[in-house]
Amino acid sequence: MKTPRLKIDSLNLSLGKFSLRDISLSCGEGEYHILLGPTGSGKTSLMRCILGFNRVNNGTISSNGKDITREIPERRCMGYVPQNYSLFPHLNVEGNIRFGFHAKKNTVKDADLIVDRLCSILDIQKLRNRNIRYLSGGEKQKVALARALAIQPDIVLLDEPFSSIDEGAKRNLWVELKTIINEVGITAFHITHNLEEAYSMGDRISVLLNGELHQSDLKQFIFEKPATEGVARYLTYRNIFLGTAKKHNTKNIINLGHFNITTQNKILIGQKVKLCIKPQDFKIIKKGVPLKKSLKNNTFHVKIISIFQFPEHFMVYAKLIGSPMAYDFEIKMPRYFERKHNLFEGKEITIAIPENQIVLLS
Predict the structure, then answer these.
(1) 1, part of any domain
(2) Strands 155-159 and 187-192: what pairing?
(3) Domain around 69
(4) 10-residue mean pLDDT series, the chain (362 residues)
(5) DSSP state, residue 106
(6) Domain-ending residue, one of 219, 234, 249
(7) Among 127, 176, 169, 122, residue whose Cα is nearest residue 149
(8) Could you tell me if 79 and 222 lie in one domain?
């Protein structure tokens, strides 16, 4: 197994009333790693620890197998793109890119070639003599990235790099930045609170909530199998239930009070279980259509209480017939389903949930 480009072990940090508690994660060579979490969760505080700006209470930070926990920032060989880019207004674009060369004790070899290559990759050749004040948000981001990469760091750290970019331009920039990072062949550690940004760009995602790391895994596992209720809720999954496991013949059943759920997960009888059903995992069952085996045990007759429209999908809030709840399920569907199934508030429909899509939470 290759030595991780960045490794954090049992890191703890106290900052007044806030603290980072027992943080452990690793970032592989060439990996695009996303640190995901809401505002105030400690993402920037952790990044400042990695950069050497915050002194940790205990735990270790390693780069390429070398312990850098007590190393000064300028010796950590890390590129940094801060949230507001922090470009120097008295320098033009090329002056900003070359600034990192002056900060290094040893003269960088082939500095001109490095600047030429970065300007070419980032498509900012025509901007090299332009004043920073006359750049767009996207252009400033590219200059900040070029400055961070010019010193040829082991890893580049990006702190909410799209926070000042307007919504219409963000998605194109996600693709551009990921492509550039891959082309340069460098490891990236990128913090954000945006779920779409995290999924689009990340190879691996770590979820930080209130100073604690809840889950760190490949992005598909984070979104498909959230490990904790906190992660599930942050990913906007609202169908979270607490129940008790019971056995019926060979089935693993969880009693949720006014209904049961069957799962493929093995559970001890009598065990208290918290589970999540992702809103996109519900299936609408048409009359007369044979049911798949995986759906037969979790089929429910519901009434649509309300429908909310969004640009690319819509949400259905449905209540089990006879349920004491205001609604039981939050269901996400493609826009065309509304017309295809003639869905409207007050309509009764049959839905089903695949057994293998039931997520048990710790």
Answers:
(1) no
(2) parallel
(3) 6-234
(4) 87 96 96 97 97 96 96 92 91 92 67 91 93 91 92 93 82 88 92 96 97 97 96 96 86 93 90 95 91 91 97 95 96 95 97 95 88
(5) S
(6) 234
(7) 122
(8) yes
